[in-house]
Amino acid sequence: MGEFEVSTRDRVVELLNAAAFMPSEKEKIANLAQVQELIIHHNPQLLDSFFEEVAAFQNDRNSDVRKFVVGFIEEACKKDVAMLPRLVPNIQLLLSDQAVAVVKRVIQAVAQLHRATLAWLSSARSTTPEMEQVWLIITIIKTTIITMIDHDNDGVRTQAIKFLEALVLLQTYTESDSVTRDGEFNLDQVPLTLKVARPRKLEEEARMVLNKLLAFQGSIHISSVNLMTCMSSLTIIARARPQFLGKIINALEILHANLPPTLTKSQVNSVRKHLKIQMLNLLKHPASYDYHENITTVLNDLGITAAEVNKSMPTKEMIRKRVRRDKRGEEVTESSSKKARIEKEEKKSKTEEVVGKNSAVDITQRWLVEKLTAKTVANLVMVTMLNLPDEMPALFSVGYSPITAAGTPTQIQHVARLIASQLTAAGVGPGVEQTEEDEVKGGYDSDEESKISRLVGGQVQTQEDTMQSGPVLVPAGVAGRASRPKAKTMKLDEVTKPLFAAGNSKMQRLLLLRLLQCDKMLFDSASKHRTRILTMLSGCMSSKESEELEDFILEDLHNRADLLFSWLYAEYSLEHDFSHINKIFNTDITTANKKEKKYSDIISSIALKVLAKDSTKERDEFLSRLFLECPYVPEDLITSLVRVGSQGAESILVIANILKDTVHWRPLSAKPALKTLSLLATHDQDSVRDRVTPILLELCEQDSLRTVVTEAAIKYLKYLYQDAPPESLCTHNLGRPNQPSEWTEATVKACLYIYLALLPLNQTLIHDLAQVYVKTVNEAKRSILRLLEGPIRHMGMDSPQLLTLVETCPKGGETLITRIIHILTEKAPPSEALVYRVRELYNRRVSDVRFLIPVLTGLSKKEVIAVLPKLIKLNPHVVKEVFNRLWGVTLDTGASPLTPVDLLVSLHLIDSDKCDVKTVIKATGLCFAERSIYTAEVLAFVLQQLMEQPSLPTLFMRTVIQTLTHYPKLLGFIMNVLQRLIARQVWKQRKVWEGFIKCCQRAGTQSFTVLLQLPPAQLSDVFTSAPDLHTRLVSHIATLTENQRAHIPVNLLEVIEGHKSSEESQSIPIEPSPNSQEVAAFSEEH
């Protein structure tokens, strides 16, 4: 032993002794680092002597010291592979360390030790049992690290990803295009004859590890750090092993289209930037030639220009070399070496696997390209517009790139590729279906975890045998523990004698009473044990004992609620055979002691007893907790809550809220809870309904819940088919203790409350109402018509269901339809769709003109004039409503088809065969009564239009006289009208002529100018009919000067002065007089 070695040994001993007692971790690690430098690098001969002393520090309390030990083991094994059997067990122990930092350092070290172990086995001429044990431990460690990809700690997952990368590179063959480091060890250097680690199994394991890595990259909740690490590892694998290039590019494409939703805006930026770098690295590889289109498309989406893409592409010379190598590879003859043949077959199988894996996306892409027509895309865009948020999401704003070549085949292919990736990732689409069929036919085993566990290290199932048959490797520096003889366990059932049934019942009874009486004397821990014992006893309690326990709990609901819930869960488990209590109490239970009350009986009994108490805050809170925390709410218990309806509105509100929470949080009990709420909504008191109905409507916002409430509403509505109210509605709990023998307004409303509240939410229900209306009793019909207004206004006249109902009006439902139309048009003009359907129904089926009144303002002028004779025959109040609609009095908006002028003119022009004169006179009287509408100007226009008629209407002069009466200021205009009448020989129409004379009488002296324009015979006739006009005219002429009298024709003066002969005064020929009805009407008026 040289002097240098002695001095080094002493120095090492000194450093180790100092490190063992140093309180400072930094100083301890510094000493150990010096030891490592001395025994590994300066004097490796000392490694065998001191490795155990250094390894012993793995039990140190400080994690940094343990991390140093891991690094020491790694360096020692790399320096001397003979250290592997001695130090690998230490690594296995350190992998389960509590400190995350130590575990991460172990994973880093195992990647090197795994490579060193495989190289050691490959270089050995023969395999020893010690080597097999080392490989077995490495295999176990490897399997453990593979599962750590799902570790809770993000940093551990990152190191696991890097380990999987190293494993894939180590356990696969290189290719001509592989990018490798100098001196890198891989499967190329592993002999095919190595039995401990078969190359074929190692390669298969690497493939499945790669699949696990790809699946991890596509997981939804992956962090941004792990995602970028995974992308880098996959890129390194693709460049080093081109056989996996297609699979990895496909995974990156899917990732680009489906970024995890948990990423923030800045993380999305980082991931996209990292993805861009990795895709550019893959593009530079010569083997990526077949995938240039896919890579280029992704890069374009990421904002890379075409110039940058071309700059990163491999040179044409590199591509030509690769093509020549591929051709040469296909011409390999059968005389090649065994390894070459195996490699070629494996390469072929790998290629087929890649193609098979990518085929799901490719098949779906081809299917989508056929479907992505311009029309289909437009429809998809319009449909998805409904789901767009109000503000642009951060992920979209970061990831969106403007589309420069929309509609081109390349862009269509790209969109199809993106959608196919998303569909494949979601497990849907024709590609996935076909792949699954192929896998089923081929007997594909999708459980990669099980494959890895079977393949890692060969025959895993013989691990225990191998451990026992070979030398046992003990961790260095860990003292062994002496085995102790086990004491024999006493079995209680061997020393316990069974009790008789009577004794068992008696002891159980005494135990129950004792447990209930010691309630206040127990501490918290003892109280928990008591609860467990009582829960166990529930398996064989009699009905009487159960009631005693119920009463005990009800005495103090607040403090004994935990006991109740433990009991209920035990009963539920017992009833469904989830508990071992059945086995305990399965024997020696007599009929008297046999369990009588089931879970539903117990919870119902407790709930009803609580409900019977006075309403307090404590009671209400307990009930709410009972319904939400019990294992199951029986339907009978929910339906029995109706009895609270007799306790007042406040109690019902509490129960309604409990039922609401039950619907939300107990899906299995939602249906009976909704039915009970619906029944409470039919309560006779308004205060109860006002509390329950809003809760029901709030629950109906969910479609699934609305269906149940709708069924209940229709059920109550159809009660109206019956001759009398059913018993279910007439109970004390619903505020109707006495059942009436016939329908009343109150009972009808009870059937309609929920239905009418739901009508705006589910407008299809209106058709059921129409069917019921046709067949129900008159009292119900009147109530329906009164209650309709609110829901119908809420639905609006644009409702498709209302329009359909009007169009398909059931026979006998015309009154209902009329009421609905009145409500719709009361404050708004009718829509075109509503007018069209009402018009069609009127023309096709309903002949009653009242049906048209609500939509009059939507009809054409011609249509209104056509039905005007029928309208004015109606009740005066109805006629007044009709005129108000036409005048626009009841509507703020909307233009009437008839102006006030048109209406009054149309009334004058009504044929007497269609409507008698008296009715027309009453209708015109309604017009003249509206002085604000029929002003002097309007009436002037009316007279003007009537004058333009070919034949003057019968009531024309009556309207002239009324106009003069209402508006004396129009005297001049009316005199002008009378003058025009002379030109039209008014005396030929007797009724008009008589009105002319009367108008002259009303006008007085103003009419003399008109009279002096009449022919002599007609003037004489005027004097005969109205002698007062003759007297007044004579007096008027007497006041004239000679000059003025000279302007009066002589023949007229003769008539006036009475000197004309009787032959000249003979009667004038006149048209046949109108029918007697018209004459009588005119005479009666004047």
TrEMBL record:
Matches recorded under Pfam families: SYMPK_PTA1_N, Symplekin_C
Gene Ontology terms: biological process: mRNA processing
GO cellular component: mRNA cleavage and polyadenylation specificity factor complex
InterPro entries named in the record: ARM-like, ARM-type_fold, Symplekin/Pta1, Symplekin/Pta1_N, Symplekin_C
Sequence ranges assigned to domain Symplekin/Pta1 N-terminal in this UniProt record: 100-318
Region (Disordered): 323-354, 429-448, 1063-1086
Keywords, sorted A to Z: mRNA processing, Nucleus
Symplekin C-terminal domain location: 848-1024
Biased composition (Basic and acidic residues): 327-354
Entry's localization field: Nucleus
Biased composition (Low complexity): 1064-1078
Keyword Protein biosynthesis in annotation: no
PANTHER family given in the database record: SYMPLEKIN (PTHR15245:SF20), SYMPLEKIN-RELATED (PTHR15245)
Protein name as catalogued: Symplekin
Organism this protein belongs to: Cherax quadricarinatus (Australian red claw crayfish)
